[in-house]
Specification:
Blueprint (H helix, E strand, L loop, with lengths): L1 H17 L4 E2 L9 H9 L15 H12 L7 E6 L4 E10 L2 E13 L5 E12 L2 E2 L6 E8 L4 E5 L11 E4 L7 E6 L5 E8 L4 E2 L1
């Protein structure tokens, strides 16, 4: 319950921080790509004390920079960018004693039916020995990009409430639907598809 509260507090704080101005997306060409959304999302932000507010993104940020420069990833890191399908995924794996840990971050976007907005999904989950181990910054968040303002603003999940009780989400690399993964005590999971309808998801 404590970890769930931390995740909810994080999302609420993030929403409050960007509610007024949103995040500027810079791009070349007619439309932004997943690369442009990722670059804008990972841009460091700083508080009044000069401290970085999103330092927890440093692992993803560093892997993205190395990918852009064509450099080899650091040990334990992997990064895949699929511009054609509008999808990016970062993984960090390490071992500690008899346990194997994994952090997985995914980003993708959907073109909304009104042709004026795009919905960006960001999914981050931590695992220990192939089972979810919810951390402070884990969760599923959404941003809505406005073609006119060229900004994206954090948004509530469209059409459903994000669950955190033994649940993770998988973003689509192909297709348009979200997958809800419900984890059982034995480490097995059942899956439910949330169908994209052009402006949100049907349960």
């Amino acid at each position: 319950m404590k970890r769930l509260s931390l995740a909810i507090m994080f999302v609420m704080c993030t929403l409050a921080m960007t509610a007024q101005d949103g995040i500027q997306v810079k791009f070349q060409g007619a439309q932004p790509t997943i690369s442009d959304f990722l670059t804008a999302y990972l841009e460091p932000t700083y508080g009044e004390d000069g401290e970085c507010d999103n330092e927890y993104m440093n692992g993803i940020r560093n892997a993205w920079e190395r990918h852009r420069k064509g450099l080899k990833q650091l040990e334990g890191d992997s990064f895949t960018l699929d511009v054609r399908n509008g999808f990016a995924v970062y993984e960090y794996k390490y071992r500690e004693g008899d346990s194997e840990f994994l952090t997985r971050f995914e980003m993708c976007f959907w073109n909304e039916a009104d042709k004026k907005h795009k919905l960006i999904g960001c999914s981050r989950w931590s695992y220990e020995n192939d089972r979810p181990s919810l951390g402070q910054y884990d969760g599923l968040t959404f941003l809505r990009y406005d073609n006119a303002t060229k900004r994206m603003i954090y948004s509530e999940a469209p059409g459903f409430e994000v669950e955190y009780d033994n649940v993770t989400y998988s973003l689509p690399r192909t297709g348009k639907d979200l997958i809800l993964n419900k984890w059982n005590a034995n480490g097995q999971k059942t899956q439910k598809t949330l169908k994209w309808n052009g402006h949100g998801f049907d349960k």
